[in-house]
Amino acid sequence: MSGETGLPDSIIMKNDVTDFLLKEYELVAKAYFDSRDITTRWFKYYLLIIAAPLSFIAVTYNGKYAEFNIFKMGPSLGFIILFIGLFCILFFKAILYIGLDAVLYARTVNGIRKVFLENDNNGFNYAKYRVLPIDIKLPEMYKYSGHLFTLITCMALMNSIYVFLGLIQFKCHVIYYVFCFIVSFLIFCLHFKLYKSTCKWKEKTYSLNEP
Q1: Cα separation of 23 and 188, whole Å?
Q2: What is the pLDDT of residues 23-55, one digit of tens each?
Q3: How many domains does the chain have?
Q4: Residue 197, domain member (yes or no)
Q5: What is the pLDDT of residues 151-167, one digit of tens each?
Q6: Is 149 domain-assigned?
Q7: Which band of pLDDT confidence, cut at 50, 70 and 90, is reported for residue 125?
Q8: Biggest alpha carbon distance in the chain?
Q9: Helices in the chain by DSSP H: which ranges?
Q10: What is the span of the domain harbouring residue 18?
Q11: Is residue 4 part of a domain?
Q12: Which of 116 and 179 is assigned the larger pLDDT?
């Protein structure tokens, strides 16, 4: 018995855990929606950076657009485009980490929801009306669909195109163009390799040690 409240210690402990879970649910649910907003914001920054070469092209070819050739813009613009294509891989990594954190937040919310629904003793059948999941393994980390995968695909495509356009400015030859295409394709594949490896790392790092 607790001397201050007159209640059994087990009841006090249960109330403390309940309060903790309710507060945790509130904070993690907010963190989930915040992470989605942060992901969108970072993607907007990414679009601003990826659009920067267009400004350089507009200034360089101002008044002489007839001379513009996307395959012959010169080494200076080629270097800028190539640098931005490679630099934006860092943006890809940042957005990927934030997106996977959102998955962890969603799983935590599911787990807390599961605790309350499976330990309810009032006899009400919540399962009949429940829509949101209570599975702590959902949503999946690695999947070929959804908001995060769409962003990843867009960034992989844009970054690899920029690498290709940047490289072809240094030499005009069919064989060299094939080499540039192979390099850009490998860059494209690298994004999905990073996606898969990061998902596995997150899954291993934050997985529950279930019996």
Answers
A1: 42
A2: 888 888 898 889 889 998 999 999 999 998 888
A3: 1
A4: yes
A5: 999 999 999 999 999 99
A6: yes
A7: low
A8: 89
A9: 9-50, 52-60, 75-118, 146-167, 174-206
A10: 9-204
A11: no
A12: 179
